[in-house]
Task: structure prediction
Amino acid sequence: MVKNIINVRNLSKSFDISSKEPGLKGTIKHFFKRQTKSLKVIKDISFEIKEGEIVGFLGANGAGKTTILKMLCGLIYPSEGSILVSGHLPFRRKENFLKNITLIMGQKQQLIWDLPPIESFYLNASIYDLDKFEAKKRIKKLSEMLEIDEELFIPVRKLSLGQRMKSELLAALIHEPNILFLDEPTLGLDINAQRNLRKFLQKYNKETNATICLTSHYMKDITSLCKRVICVHEGEISYDGKLNLLLKKLSPVKEISIVCCSEKEANKLESSGFTVKNKIKNEITIKIENKSITSSLKTILNNFDIEDLFINEPPIDEIIGKVLIKKDYDI
Amino acid sequence: MNLRKYLKVYKKFLHTSLASELEYKTNILIDLITAIFSLTGSIFLLSIFFQNNGYIGGWKFEQALIIQGIYTILNGITNTWFNPNLAEIVKHIREGTLDFVLLKPIDSQFFISLKKINPSGFLEIMLGFFLLFFCIRINQINLNLSFLTLSLITIGCSICILYSLWFFISTTTIWFVKTWNAIEVLRSFLYIGRFPLNSFSFSLRIFFSIFIPIAFITTIPSEVFLGLSQLWEILLEVIVAAVFLITSRKFWLFALNFYSSASS
Result:
């Protein structure tokens, strides 16, 4: 049985936030008498993550995804509740714990700006107490996986965003952590760079059985990497479970576009009891529930004379978009 | 603490920051020229003060030059280590890049205090030592073991006090986010360290001894050079340095409990 590597129980986090009224009057008032209020950004959440799992955290901006990641890796203290990551209390930041984790943030960088990435890799290697030989071996292996080579020797400031992100990944993985916290790792990357990064993460997870916790606003990252998602809505977990179940729940029907051999055949199909979305001459689009899709398609293929058939998957962004604004999903 | 690992990491810090700085040759050249002009200007200013009066606060010009020498060494250390690193703490906290430091299996204070160096500050340190050797000659100071030991102890303590003051102010960024002004005030107070403490009024002497111990930073090491120091003064400086160093360390660890990281 695969053991839990992350255990979170009744976790809450509050921040003191100051607010300011607009205009000069508001600015002066804000300067002399700052009004702060305690805002609960994470509200009593609980979940477990198994070793080797890739879990996506979904939620709108400000929902609390990054705060959860930062508490999991020990950067910020929880206000209430308990967290256990790989048997450690993260916020104590013990050496053994830190050697096991890494945090990659798409919008922040740790590489030394004026130097080639290779210099930052060797600096990190010395911090993680790796000898030169071992560091060289790991850099070679990771650079092959990430498909970077001569970029390692070009100053960071001259690299493209995609090349920089790959180098950031290498710098963050040189100590071969078994838990990866990724906060929007593909932010700002072009389609190919995003795909390469996802390919790398899949490969890294497969080869090392590392646990990956990921937040991203690019649905492709979530759908291609995560079997399980945790949806966060205003600091609460609105859904925790398999991604495909969520998609089925949110999109219970599929659209089938059928090109019939004749308009007469299309008319016959229209009157056969299927829910018709639209019909133009011999082309007809019907809606079928996910659970009866196989039997319905069999009926259509056996009883109607058709030329072509397309199953239209609903746009994933649209479906996930519903998650970001809805609070509860009972699945 | 694994000393071997920390030495290895420091070697890497030296290597990477030197390499980064050497990317900008002109900047280094300008910094070097600035250091020479700054020292020349300071000596010129000091000589103006002494032009009409042979003594200020009981110190001759040749003796006051010792304070200038020690100040130049400390300023060089400030420019080499404190300025590039401790000023960066504010940036780390404002931009949230302190996250990367805190997640490394290394002492965070060691990392943020020593990661960078500015090589042009070395020239200032060297100029300060040249000035000190010159002062030793003109003041006919007898170089012996006890003199050298006491000088090193007092200068070491001055470095600790200066570092702790600076680090303490930078740490408050965790709550106040922006503390550039406080650091600028500290730097301007340090300029006062170029003059003998006795040249100030009694109330200012108390202020610069107790509240902001500038007096300990330059005057006591200078008195050691001139054989004017009292043992209790040296002991007091050692105690003040230890208290400052320990307090700044404890304050940093305490402040980290309140670090909320920058939003992304």
Summary: Chain A touches chain B at residues 15, 66, 70, 73-77, 93, 95, 98-99, 101-103, 105, 107-110, 112-115, 119-120, 122-124, 126-129, 155, 183-184 (CB under 8 Å). DSSP finds twelve helices and 13 strands in chain A. The radius of gyration of chain A is 25 Å. The first strand of chain A starts at residue 4 and ends at 19.
